[in-house]
Amino acid sequence: MRAARHLALLLSACTLSLPSGATANAGDDRKPTPREDRIPAGKARLYAREIGRGRPILVLHGGPDFDISYLLPDMDRLADSYRLVYYDQRGRGKSAEGVAPEDVGLESELDDLDTVRRHFGLEKTALLGHSWGALLALEYAARHPERVSELVILNPGPVSEADFRLLLRERAEKWPEAVEKLKAMRADAAYKEGDPDAVAAYYRIHFAAALQRPADLDRLIARMRASFTRDGIRKARAVEDRLLRETWLSPGYDVIPRLRGLATPTLVVYGDHEFIPAACSTHIAQAIPGARYVTLAACGHFPFLECAAAMRREIDSFFASP
């Protein structure tokens, strides 16, 4: 079953770069310039992208079969005040070369996150996890709270098997026609083979419920289609299948109990047009002592695309809090 792929994202990549270690336009008002890097991690060489200056935030993309490109360029708006560190997770995007799906699992995901943190000299850093990335951020913080300064949990996907089942039930109840159409599309040969046009058509139907404005859906799908390749789609799907078996599809999987003793300052962001059940977010906020929970109005699963100003206000307010 590939139902969790409904939560995934894959959009066009931003490729501007400076040599590794270069600084971003310090002392002027020009737009910060991204710096690209490759980080050795076992059999993988993780693609990383750094931009901005200020408080460091390590950004974890959604999926799990996608890469950072769907976050760009919108998330970069934060780079005027924050040092953003992105990376493509192992086996996806620009971190796919030389990686076999069997090289990827939850433990390798968390090890890679730590490798990236150390590579950029971040003794302690904020983590921003979007969708599937929220699960990775919470897993990592639960295991290594001393290495995480703050958590921004942005439109999280489920972090337990029970909440994943809730998502599937609610989706079937609210959008039965879309669910049946998507099921038929997944059985089509073109989709199975990773045909970019077929996959883009699939996501247009899937994400129609995740964004409030049709124009935002158009932008999202255009970006997705621009970066699709057959090989990339097929490898990322195989990676996803392995990760799902260890998390959402694993009987009894549940991060929530391990969050109840977490002292890390946490912001949980939800959208009132979100297609993931609100319970998936509230369960996280209720478990973490003192977590701040906010709901963005007229906003769905992609606040950096749909309501960037409102998202920015909440993030700035959170980091400014004593």
Task: Write structural notes for this entry.
The structure is a single chain. The protein is an alpha/beta fold and 322 residues long. It has one domain (3-320): Rossmann fold. The protein is built from eleven helices and eight strands. It has helices at residues 106-119, 132-143, 161-174, 176-186, 189-192, 196-206, 214-227, 230-246, 278-287, 303-306, 308-320; strands at 35-41, 44-51, 55-60, 82-87, 125-130, 148-154, 266-271, 292-296. An eight-stranded mixed sheet has the order 1-2-4-3-5-6-7-8, with helices on both faces. Helix 3 (161-174) packs across helix 4, helix 4 packs antiparallel against helix 6 (196-206) and helix 6 (196-206) packs antiparallel against helix 7 (214-227). The longest helix has 17 residues, at 230-246. The radius of gyration is 18 Å and the shape is globular. The protein starts with 34 loop residues before the first strand and ends with a helix. 46% of the residues are buried. Residues 1-28 have low confidence and may be disordered.
